[in-house]
Amino acid sequence: MYDVVYFSSVSENTKRLVEKLGLTAVRIPLKTEEAERFTYDRDSVLIVPTYGSGEEKTTVPKQVIKFLNNPENRKHIKGVVATGNTNFGSSYGLAGVIVSEKLGVPLIQRIEILGTPEDITQLKERLTKLWELR
Ligand SMILES: Cc1cc2nc3c(=O)[nH]c(=O)nc-3n(C[C@H](O)[C@H](O)[C@H](O)COP(=O)(O)O)c2cc1C
Q1: Which CATH architecture has domain 3-132?
Q2: What is the pTM of this model?
Q3: From CA 19, how far away is CA 13, in angstroms rounded?
Q4: Between the chain's N and C termini, which has fewer beta carbons within 10 Å?
Q5: What are phi and psi of 77, to 5 degrees?
Q6: pLDDT in tens, 8-38
Q7: Ligand 1 shell residues, CB under 6 Å
Q8: Which atom of ligand 1 is nearest to the CA of 114?
Q9: Strands 44-49 and 25-27
Q10: What is the pLDDT of residues 51-68, one digit of tens each?
């Protein structure tokens, strides 16, 4: 199965979602300079929350941008899951949309906050399918 690489801010919603998946998971550091040095060399799915409330410049967390600036990290990302909040309307999960387009990998799912049990089940099914198709 793919590992999970994720970012989660101090509110740790995404961290709690990831814990429910029961997969090997690594967290991109909160400190930008650490995120810049952080490497992961196993094929993974990236789970990314959206910030910036629709402001284009800050939509993708800067720590995630730093991590993805490293081509070695980038090449191991096989899919993206977007977390966010539907209250943000058209920018719901936008960071995941942007990253999946940039990397040319599928946007597997958009999940609100921690995800419902149904979201988790669906995500596990989709991750299994993606893994089998590799
Ligand atoms: C300042 C701020 C801006 C946000 N902007 C967006 C947004 O544009 N789109 C969206 O879907 N969610 C947005 N969110 C919601 C977060 O993506 C959501 O709470 C997510 O679960 C945070 O994950 P984390 O706690 O792991 O960092 C925003 C949250 C904050 C605090």
Answers
A1: 3-Layer(aba) Sandwich (3.40)
A2: 0.98
A3: 10
A4: C
A5: -85, 115
A6: 999 999 999 999 999 999 999 999 999 999 9
A7: 8-9, 11-15, 49-54, 83-85, 88, 91-94, 113
A8: 21
A9: unpaired
A10: 988 787 889 999 999 999
